[in-house]
Amino acid sequence: MFAMQDIQEDMEGKLSISPLRLNFKPALPFGAIRNSVDPDDLQRFINACRSVRGKSLHKLLQGDSFELLDLFPPECVQLHFTSIPYGSIVDYTGSGLEFGSEKTYQKFLDRLELFLAASFRLCKQGGCVVLNARGLSSGSGCGPVGSKTFRGRSKIAAKRGVGRQSNFAEGFRRKDFIDLPGDIGRLGSKVGFTWRGDDIWEKTRCLPESVKDRHARVHENLILLTKGPLYKFDRSRLRQLGSKMDQSVLRLPTSTANYGHPATFSPILAEHYIYAATDEGDVVLDAFGGVGSTALAALKHGRHSITMELSHDFFGKALDRLEYFASGFQGEVKVGKPLT
Ligand SMILES: C[S@@+](CC[C@H](N)C(=O)[O-])C[C@H]1O[C@@H](n2cnc3c(N)ncnc32)[C@H](O)[C@@H]1O
User: Fold this and answer.
1) pLDDT for 114
2) pLDDT tens, 158-173?
3) What does the mean pLDDT of the chain come to?
4) Which atom of ligand 1 is nearest to the CA of 265?
């Protein structure tokens, strides 16, 4: 279990780019946790998001986002902000459904294209998709955590699954750079998005890489895809709200409170894009929601949110976090393929 003061620190702490407090009442108009996902209910949820004023609505779905995305009506999301799991760097659920557990990079890219096409369908005209990812190193001689070839940084890092090297060695020379951010942009463009480039998240508090033959990487990329060349993104809002980060390098620490998740980002990262790319009442989606950082940021600023997460454990923690911060939300449990 996590400490409640961590959540408080996350959402109200001095790191926040905004002095705002929770001004919007989260609402619970449709009842409590359900056992399956009904597309009609999702349509009702979207209708309610369009009509409700002064409240924010939140939907959490446990299950495979590749199935769940298809259940939503088209053109319902203003911003899809998510962090892509890849290369089995972290083995989250071991369910086999997990995105990023594909055996080759090409298979991963094939699924990524399906994911981007599904995102494109859901995205409103003039909406944005922002994907957090980073370049990978191929075949540096390390294997999965615990294997004989694993050469992780520390026992703690190994236990948390951090430091595991990518599976994606096939087709690359040893130590080749795998340009995942670039591939996301190219595939996004292929499915219809406008590829607007990327921002850099410079991680001011992170485990340094142990490499000796190049600079230790301390950044990740945020790839911006838009539906159409004219889209909602107002950089000047960030200045108005007191953030100095209105340029392409965002200097932010990794999250201090990770709730047992090895790859959380700080809600402040999500806040940044939510401010610039949505208005109150817009719907923000995170299809790889982890412990709910995007939903928390949306809730804080009166945006509606949809969160999808495969792992029961992380899904439960996301619910706990939102529940703590809000007095009501709409959660759903999808029963489908059992997870180990
Ligand atoms: C990089 S983490 C996201 C962490 C999140 N940004 C946060 O701050 O908590 C990626 C998440 O995607 C989830 N995931 C992987 N495959 C999935 C799938 N097919 N459907 C839904 N979630 C999936 C993993 O369980 C993991 O929690």
Assistant:
1) 97
2) 554 444 445 677 788 8
3) 77
4) 8
CATH number at residue 306: 3.40.50.150
**pLDDT tens digits along 15-71:** 333 333 333 444 433 323 344 678 888 898 899 899 988 778 888 888 899 999 999
Q: Number of folded domains in the chain?
A: 1
- Sequence-distant contacts of 28-36: CB under 8 A, at least 24 apart: 28/328, 28/329, 28/330, 29/57, 29/330, 30/330, 31/330, 32/330, 32/331, 33/331, 33/332, 33/333, 34/332, 34/333, 35/333, 35/335, 36/334, 36/335
Query: Residue 325 C-alpha to ligand 1 middle, in angstroms?
Result: 21
CA of 229 to the centre of ligand 1 (A): 29
**Which atom of ligand 1 is least distant from the CA of 97?**
19
- Structural domain including 296 reads 25-135+179-333
Q: Whose CA is nearest to atom 5 of ligand 1?
A: 290
Per the domain annotation, does 243 fall within a domain? yes
Q: Please give the distance, rounded to the nearest whole angstrom, from the Cα atom of residue 318 to the centre of ligand 1.
A: 11
